[in-house]
Specification:
about 575 residues, alpha/beta, seven-stranded mixed beta sheet, about 10% strand
Length: about 575
């Protein structure tokens, strides 16, 4: 047999080129020629272990290795083509077919070594097939192809969110998936080890060299290697780069502070507190304070405080989130970074940096727990506060937002403070956001997401009331701002893609005390005059700077609703990094 096996390489090359020409679009002839040359090299590497051995592994493990490699190389190009077939796009999946051939060569070389090496094949095949299952599941749930952004969102979630996500689906589905993965691992190990043991190994040195050849071809070139450019691995590497950026954030604090100058426009020796409440998944379409025609009074307190002759809360009915997920929205909202500049997140000053430079002590209290979660843009900003505390999260038992109110008792009432409350708010699953005793309306069934969402709205409204009352009574509250990170369409399954403006219509409300209005009349007048202006929450940083009433070299007043120079209209503003204009929202 021997070298004659090399004649299988042209067949693999033809399959790879067919896949490339079928799924890829927008490549020049020169790039196609490069792909053809790369596939030729990988096709030779794929059959090299068998050519060196002079025979193939037993049929069962050989077919299993071929299936694993082919599934791994096909899943992303296929799903990508299905989901983007109507779009003019340039596919970047040249490396997937090449990686599949290298994986096949690696698996067959280990099989031909036999002995302990054969035990490695099963776990490797499980890893590859797990990436296939993950991408197929992602597609089945969201109708979209996984990308680096979707992978990052998936891996940034915390343990309780994962538990709630799993509980949303029937238990048998999760159990079936677990059984399937265990069965694949057991079957793969058994087929590979038993069959190879009965067949016998081949000279180790030559198979080791063939194995090394597969690895070198796949990994040579570092960030430009076949492995690094293959779809799923590229998502993993992009996530690692993102983590490194977040890890740099704390070390960049001296750089941010050294270039930041802040001066209060109005100096005061009296103690005062500014309170920022960040909501979660709140859609103003379901809030009676913003939509009085609703069938249910979901926000009675805020509605009462923002209407009538004694109204002291300002509501902004044209506020939008700049993104559809927490981390990208607050990455911009909490820092000087916005859709109109090109600043780096780790060096852009945050509301924490500005408030500290203005002489305030910063308290950050969050119900968006650290439990099982990796670093995020929000957590690294929060940890720069003078006091940062999270609620006690237990697996499967997420606490209610009322637990944040106790943290307000730890704030020093004799100082000048900026206090941030980060709520769990109206995050899916909605029925877990409020205690049973706070169920205002009875859901009509287990699938009545609208009613459970409205109940969560009613509960958050009461949290706002209690936070405002406590802060007024003991912290000399001067101003309070409430807005959400993003919105949600409650009767639709949450997706990583834009599903309509219901994903971004958020509440924004501002309260100021009589003392604040007297000391900062221009700020209050501008806020009052700008209530009907269009606004996106990547300007939250500027709004807080305006409420703090500071002058800074890292603050543009024309971006702040607290200044009469704010000029943005719906035609100027966008969401999702400039890809969707607010003028497209016709409802």
């Amino acid at each position: 047999m021997g070298l004659s096996i090399l004649w299988c390489a042209p067949a693999l090359w033809v399959v790879a080129m067919f896949e490339f020409l079928l799924f890829c679009r927008g490549y020049s002839r020169r790039e196609i020629a490069r792909a053809a040359a790369l596939y030729a090299l990988c096709a030779v590497v794929a059959v090299l272990p068998m050519a060196v051995a002079g025979h193939t592994p037993p049929l069962a493990p050989l077919l299993l290795a071929a299936f694993t490699a082919f599934a791994g190389q096909l899943v992303y190009p296929l799903i990508s083509r299905i989901t983007r077939r109507a779009e003019p796009w340039r596919s970047v999946n040249i490396a997937d077919a090449a990686m599949g051939m290298c994986v096949f060569g690696l698996l067959t070389s280990l099989l031909l070594m036999g002995g302990a090496a054969a035990w490695i094949v099963g776990p490797l095949e499980l890893i590859v097939l797990a990436t296939v299952v993950i991408q197929c599941t992602y597609f089945a749930l969201y109708g979209a192809c996984m990308d680096a952004y979707g992978y990052r969102l998936m891996t940034q979630t915390n343990t309780n969110e994962v538990i709630e996500f799993i509980r949303y689906y029937p238990l048998w589905m999760s159990g079936l998936l677990l059984v399937l993965l265990v069965a694949v691992l057991y079957g793969s190990v058994r087929v590979n080890v038993v069959a190879v043991h009965s067949h016998g190994g081949t000279p180790l040195i030559w198979q080791a060299l063939a194995c090394v050849a597969c690895v070198v071809v796949a990994c040579a070139g570092g960030s430009r290697s076949i492995a690094a450019r293959s779809a799923f691995l590229s998502f993993v590497l992009a996530r690692k780069r993102h983590i490194r950026t977040l890890e740099k954030y704390a070390s960049c604090r001296p750089q941010r502070e050294s270039g930041l100058t802040v001066a209060p426009a109005v100096r005061s020796e009296s103690p005062s507190t500014i309170l920022l409440v960040i909501g979660e998944s709140a859609n103003r379409d379901y809030m009676s304070a913003f939509n009085p025609a609703l069938r249910r009074d979901t926000t009675p307190w805020l509605k009462a405080r923002s209407t009538g002759p004694d109204a002291d809360w300002l509501i902004f009915p044209n506020a939008y989130s700049c993104a559809i997920h927490t981390f990208p929205a607050l990455e911009k909202g909490l820092t000087e970074l916005n859709q109109f500049n090109r600043l780096d997140f780790d060096t852009a000053p945050s509301i924490v940096d500005v408030a500290r430079a203005a002489g305030r002590r910063i308290y950050w209290f969050s119900n968006q727990g650290h439990l099982g979660a990796s670093l995020s843009q929000v957590s690294v900003v929060a940890e720069q506060a003078d006091v940062a505390r999270w609620t006690n999260q237990q697996p499967g038992l997420p606490p209610y937002d009322s637990e944040l109110l106790d943290f307000l008792d730890t704030v020093d009432p004799s100082g000048s403070n900026l206090v941030v409350l980060h709520l769990k708010g109206n995050h899916f699953s909605f029925e877990n956001r409020y205690p049973a005793s706070e169920e205002t309306w009875k859901p009509e069934g287990p699938d009545d997401a609208i009613t459970t969402y409205e109940n969560s709205m009613h509960y958050v409204d009461d949290i706002l009331r209690r936070a405002w009352t406590k802060a007024c009574e003991r912290l000399n509250l001067q101003a309070m701002v409430y807005c959400s990170d993003h919105a949600i369409i409650p009767d639709k399954h949450r997706a990583p893609t834009f599903m309509g403006f219901g994903d971004v219509r958020i509440p924004l409300a501002v309260w100021t005390s009589e003392q604040y209005r007297a000391a900062h009349p221009a700020r209050h007048a501008a806020l009052s005059a700008n209530t009907l202006r269009y606004w996106t929450n990547d300007f939250l940083y500027e709004l807080i700077c305006g409420v703090l009433d500071v002058e800074s070299n890292h603050f543009e007043p024309s971006h702040s609703l607290a200044y009469d120079t704010y000029h943005y209209t719906r035609d100027d503003l966008t969401v999702l990094n400039g890809t969707i204009s607010l003028s497209d929202d016709q409802s």
